[in-house]
Amino acid sequence: MIVFKTEKCKGCMQCVNACLFEGIKVDNRFPVLTDRCTGCEACINFCDEDAIVITGEKTKRKHDIDSYSGIWVIAEQRDGNIHNVTLELLGKAQELAKTRKSEVSAVIIGNELNGAVDKLIEHGADRVYISNAPFLAHYRTTPYVRVISDLIKKHKPEVVLLGATSIGRDLAPRLASNVRTGLTADCTGLKISSDGRLFQTKPAFGGNIMATIVTPEHRPQMSTVRPGVMRSAILAGRRGEVVNVEAKRHTTDDFVRIIHTIRKKKGKVDLEKAKIIVSGGRGLEAPSNFSMLNELANILSGEVGASRGAIEEGWVPESYQIGQTGKTVRPKLYIACGISGAIQHLAGMENSDFIIAINKDPNAPIFKTADLALVGDIKRIIPELISRLS
User: Do 263 and 319 contact (CB within 8 A), yes or no?
Assistant: First the structure.
């Protein structure tokens, strides 16, 4: 417990300024704690008069780590169709589970989902927790958090993974808060040690460094992962356990109601599923030159993408963007045209099976990542490729 010794306090207010949480206020010229104090003890380090002390035994909100086991994937479905990121996470979960010699479980909730269970098992789930209820048919934060967090508290998984989608980014932090653990968002790499520490790698400081984060004292360890980062695997003939979970409706579930759903019309660009991508950057010099990329992509039965630079120039819509602030892709062939190779862009495409880079700058960073480098003028190389492939 933090205690202020008024007889030593000089009223300098350094402790008030040091508190990031407004946990200290001034009352009758002396500092006192408010209910926003987190016990971080930062104020002690700023007091030169030894007027702040800790009394009693300090206790940590530490979980019993040894009681947690298993890798969980929170499945995302829309109208019973499982999102690809769920299948990708199951593939990674199997890798993690082998290291820990544990099992992989998937959690799926919604309505009339029995057809999705076999697909989850086929892609790596040893066990599927399924909750079918009409009030869970469409994603709403409150009932989904309640049902899933109750399962986590009951079964104590060691790791919980979610997709970094619009739903996952809403659901994951609320789950983490509810079960009192940490969360690392938008991970690009996951590894686990033999003692169960999950090393969660993600771009930081605008993508200029890669940070590796661990959750040493709390469980479960939670991460969200972008679609396209991990690789899914189909394991035909697998069998798994199915656990039906009863979900009862609460009055709080209806604080938000879905009146009507308007589906976004699907455009031509579907980069996350594309096997071949022809991508352009500022090196194209003009928006009209994207027509060359479109022609080449059509010949190759691929899609056209773009770097952030091309998006900022207004040459193509944001839906084309690949990179840290765009989409993460893993095609069999990625052709980078006039893209310098900033780390933010590499984060979205470096796991492509084969990368061809075309740039007139022989020192372009993209060449360090590319499997094949073509140094030259794009306006000459692309038409030549089109001619030879036509």
Answer: no
